[in-house]
């Protein structure tokens, strides 16, 4: 049946896909189920009935996010679409979904692939890929593989996010779609545009019919918004009650521009072979102006107390551009009982920050009197009018920086499979290998403009009054004047830049790292009556090298660290057909994940008895994983499932202070990263989805989907002669989704709620549990509606963050602020024209 052939299919997708496919915890929707031999979570966007039938034939436990018949995911970007999947939660930045956490495992410990090749990370210190750089229109499907078979890369602890882009074979004949949208942010009172389009067509080459396909997609979006922030950074003194040491207000003015382009080719010369070329380009430009105003109390104060305090005002103004490119060429050919497939992949990620103001600080000329605050969750600053008078502040220093990070990954892999019989049972042996070469470079150049009076500038030239741009609109209290970036740039332009070069910052933050992985595997699958078994082993050999610069008591040292290690990773998968509608799945797998590049950074600074440094000698994280689950099909488009999981993790990485031990016994501070001995993570995922089409009208249009994940973790850290237990960072004990929808042949409605409980965001010193930072629980509620004005033209309305949810981080106890930030709801209205 042609995808999206009828108007009913068009109208129904928006609800049925999210409510039924995404909400099902383990709903298998594989395109080629015979080849999928893993537990994965995917997104499916065509018919739910067809998807559930695919699941019943597949070897995977799957739920999917898939582009619908009009070429769009159900959310604005890949990260927000994935948050509907059981066991997944999203880390948000300025209210937008960015990084994905799987089963409580932090984003840096998960992998992202685009069309089968690894996506490197644009940020200098991370492995995690911010999925908001991928516009939804470029994505055909998203899957999260939760258990790995030996023929897959073993580099994910929680899951591997697989992104598949548009193919001409996703549609019959000519397909094109054009969309325009305007969104309005309630807090910023600004409207932002968005345009996108996709087209695909099949052609006949040689003697074939419709055997060559071309697909292209383009997306552009500009979003203008603001956010208000209030933070203490955890600066509470708990030795005598709960006294606050400092408080800062921040006002953000942000413009984000996304551009995405995909161009794909598919060629199927005969029934035995197929070839493809997948290309994807994404550009994400973030322009941010951050004004800050803060105080540091002379003596830590309780709420309601007043006293003297130092005051400051600060400006950060920077432009940051991230780019991701991915090119994948591959093919598959059947040769009798043999199947041969191969792939060449190249991907590159970069982040470039041109020269700009990393921080311009104006210090108060004198201490301010009668300064206090009220409340501890959202402490409100209480200060006299002198704090809001620009004449009372003088420019102290300007940090000026530029930075460029590149991360490239090249790979080649070959897989061979042979079908045969084992004692009369159908079986397949599969083996192959992969070579991967990854390089990550970072180059930072820094200047610090300070002691400006020594360079001929007068007090009048440095007074804040020369740089103000009017009173700022700040939703959490009075803020005072904003600072003009242009005025600061004009001042610096008259100075000799070379006089202010910061050699220390510029050299110790530069690095070059390489990570070469050679892998091979052997696996076998066999069907025995109602059982299917998959067993095998994967080998991965890794060679890691890091080059950088350290500073020891004002003397620079070159660093070249090289490390090699090997892993043998066995795996066993089983599936049992209990009855016609019920099946049980089980898996025992192993994975190995390398520490982040920030943790492995070779640079260091040693000054007297204080030191801070990365640790290129960190061991990789190793995990033994167990999964067991059952799924029951409930007729048309219905499933209920339950899956339990357990992970035994060795060598997890955490920040620590090694002062007083080993080589650092005489140091008062030695901040670095270390391997913990072991950690455990276990939990259960529950899911239910149903379309109530057997009910009388209008109830036959009702859709319901729900899932919840309950998990626990335990890890032990040590340092400075003590040890304690912690939760794994970024792990929420509860994650849940509830989707309620209704549809007919013209109108579709969806109300979706996403919840995650608190999680440990940052670990303090081993002996200072009270200053651990926790991100509070969040509940986001979104609404969407679509109405077909004609068979090809759809009007859409969406409302995001209807609960006006904020981001709140607290210090040890929920009463004590570390960071509070508000974003407000966003509303959008758009039109989509589609031709099938």
TrEMBL record:
InterPro entries: Beta-barrel_TonB, Beta-barrel_TonB_sf, Plug_dom, Plug_dom_sf, TonB-dep_rcpt-like, TonB_rcpt_bac. Pfam families: Plug (PF07715), TonB_dep_Rec_b-barrel (PF00593). It is found in: Cell outer membrane. Residues 1-30 form the signal peptide. It comes from the Bacteria. SUPFAM superfamilies: Porins (SSF56935). Residues 55-160 form the TonB-dependent receptor plug domain. Keywords: Cell outer membrane, Membrane, Receptor, Signal, TonB box, Transmembrane, Transmembrane beta strand, Transport. The keyword Glycosyltransferase does not apply. It is a multi-pass membrane protein. GO terms for cellular component: cell outer membrane. Residues 366-802 form the TonB-dependent receptor-like beta-barrel domain. Belongs to the TonB-dependent receptor family. This is TonB-dependent receptor.
